[in-house]
Amino acid sequence: MGIIVQxxxxxxxxxxxxxxxxxxxxxxxxxxxxxxxVVVSAMGHTTDYLIKLAKEVTQNPDSRExxxxxxxxxxxxxxxxxxxxxxxxYKAISMNGQQVGIITENxxxxxxxxxxKTDKLNKYLKEENIIVVAGxxxxxxxxxxxxxxxxxxxxxxxxxxxxxKADRCDIYTDVEGVYATDPRIVPNIKKTDVISxxxxxxxxxxxxxxxxxxxxxxxxxxxxxxxVRSSFNLDNLGTLIIGVENMEIYKPVAGVAAxxxxxxxxxxxxxxxxxxxxxxxxxxxxxxxxxxxxxxSLALNGTNSIAFTVDADDLNxxxxxxxxxxxxxxxNEILIDKNIAKVSIVGAGMVDxxxxxxxxxxxxxxxxxxxxxxxxxxxxxxxxxxxxxxxSAIKALCKEFGLESxxxxxxxxxxxxL
Length: 418
Ligand code: ADP
Ligand code: ASP
Ligand code: MG
Hints:
Blueprint: E1 3-8, H1 16-31, E2 35-40, H2 46-57, H3 63-87, E3 92-95, H4 97-100, E4 102-104, E5 113-116, H5 119-126, E6 130-134, E7 137-139, E8 145-147, H6 153-163, E9 168-173, E10 194-196, H7 197-205, H8 213-222, E11 226-230, E12 239-242, E13 255-259, E14 262-271, H9 276-286, E15 291-296, E16 303-311, H10 315-329, E17 333-337, E18 341-346, H11 355-366, E19 373-377, E20 380-385, H12 390-400
Parallel strand pairs: 1-2, 1-9, 2-6, 3-6, 9-11, 10-12
Antiparallel strand pairs: 4-5, 7-8, 11-12, 13-18, 14-16, 14-17, 15-16, 18-20, 19-20
Adenosine-5'-diphosphate binds near residues 10, 151, 175, 183 and 184.
């Protein structure tokens, strides 16, 4: 007996039959004597379809209106799932973010949750309802609808689990758990039974989109026991994500991921004097633009250059801002490189093992893959490569670090076209 939060992604609720399968999985937990809250994503490719629709109306949609539009996807699936559960003879009620009181910051398209009201959730649970909550959305204190960023339903689920002090949060998806890399790229890849919050967080941040990074951040902060498991094979317990204190051994490399969603910007001919970097990155920060990798070259003849990466979605804004500060920083050139992918290896066991970085660079070199930029943290090494080399880099690194398996991973990602 406890509180269980379940989350089902888009593939799991892609059609009416699958919605009934989800209803069965939810009822199974309820029959075990648990209070159940289910968070769902929009059906199948709905969010992609809505984005495409908006782009057909205007190339530059307003972010408030985009949130109004995208939040409708989840409202469809919650109502349908609540109906399916009721059809199976159980009490169910659907709630959108505003009805629950999922309060977020006042930022559109990537808002963070700041508070979750639990009074209505507790009331409906007490009345024996299965509660079906719309993922990915929230509301500002002023009543404006917001969304949490692509893949954000994972974060909705974990945040609700944290707010209700749930016993478990199970993220059901179209693969059997967390693998050492995306099984769509390397099908014969090892599955991970247990991984630490820290490693999972790094993996999610560098492109393992099986979990939204902020969901892992929230699970770590509030110590929510988190599982990633398959909605098509309910008997498989998938992957458990837990705190460091419970880990016995760390592998040097737990996983490999790639992120092709960034662009690189090069500012050359900058004066080698204090304040240049502060002006560039200060202006970007003021406009909420996150910068990832940064390299400043050695000064030559009193000038140097700075290269950095940002999200491709932020490119237009970044260039506008750089043009505004161009005269202040005296750069003679702003170059843009869209042909990049960041390939990373992650593992808590790589701390103090310099050989791991050398092995990574050698494996890439042996596959004739050129490295454009490198960045490291305690448990992660990232290399920027050309986009077309990303998959072969992942394959080479999985081989190099012994992450391949003799078994082929099961992926159920066959989605209907909406
Ligand atoms: P959902 O709609 O259920 O949220 P997502 O598409 O967001 O599903 O996440 C599941 C997908 O994540 C898988 O189909 C897989 O292709 C991808 N993925 C990327 N990296 C990994 C990884 N390391 N382990 C498992 N799946 C991964
Ligand atoms: N529907 C949203 C998306 O496709 C949120 C989610 O699925 O987690 O990004
Ligand atoms: Mg997802």
